[in-house]
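User: Can you predict the 3D structure for this chain?
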Amino acid sequence: TVFVTALVTAQESVPPALQAMADTEREFARTAKVKGIRDSFLDFFADDAIAFAPEPTSSRARLLKQPARPFSVHELLWEPRFGDIAASGEIGWLTGPSTFIDHESPDKKPHYGNYLSVWRKQPDGRWRVFIDIGIPTPAEVSFGPGFTRMPSVGRYAGKEGKDAATQSLRDADRQLNGAIAGSGAAKAYGDRLASASRLHRGGVLPLVGSKAIVEWLDAHASGLATAAGGGEAAASGDFGYTYGTYTIAGATPQSGAYVRVWTRDAAGKWLVAADVAEPTRR
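Assistant: Here is the predicted structure, written as structure tokens:
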């Protein structure tokens, strides 16, 4: 009874616009079973959707260069389990587990991952993906039951307008990058995380919560340098996303793109809700 009550409460706290966005993601995943990865992505990606190489490039142009393969050959399963939406209801984010199987490979081994997608509502009212980014994980990623909205940090209710909010968000992104350079990643992120924030890095299970994130960064993020690219805040000024590039110096250097989704507390401070790093594919 306690479990059922908790699940119903969580579902009731999901606003209709967030529910519609998550339902569109589920429809997207179902379509992939019928049309395959490439053609379903073309259906559900916005015309101006971006991918990273590591600079932003057209997702659709990249997809059109790929061959279409049926689901029976390249099997991809995923499901939205966690996310949030702006109070103004036009942009949001979703994350959840993914499983990919190449049925042409000798062992047909499942490859697990965790995706993150930024969604925008289109002029016709449909939800479409603007950014899709994911990491490989060493095992299946677990989430709580059902779909959960990211817990509130005390939602921002300022009225400065979209342009000013976007400028404030980009400033916050640059300030985080500067703090990474100045005091290290663990300290820089530690000042800008919420209790349910997520850090996605390839090869490890997602880090959830400020304590786990700071401890992991302290042990694994030496030599990190980041540079801001772009970003956008919602019209309500309480949510946004940014992206840019990163390099990691050391014995095994790495470079690629980062994507961050942000939430803003009642005092107007931007906090990192989720941060994903995707190495550039060679």
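The CA atoms of residues 134 and 268 lie 29 Å apart. Helices lie at 2-12, 16-35, 37-44, 59-64, 162-183, 185-190, 210-220.
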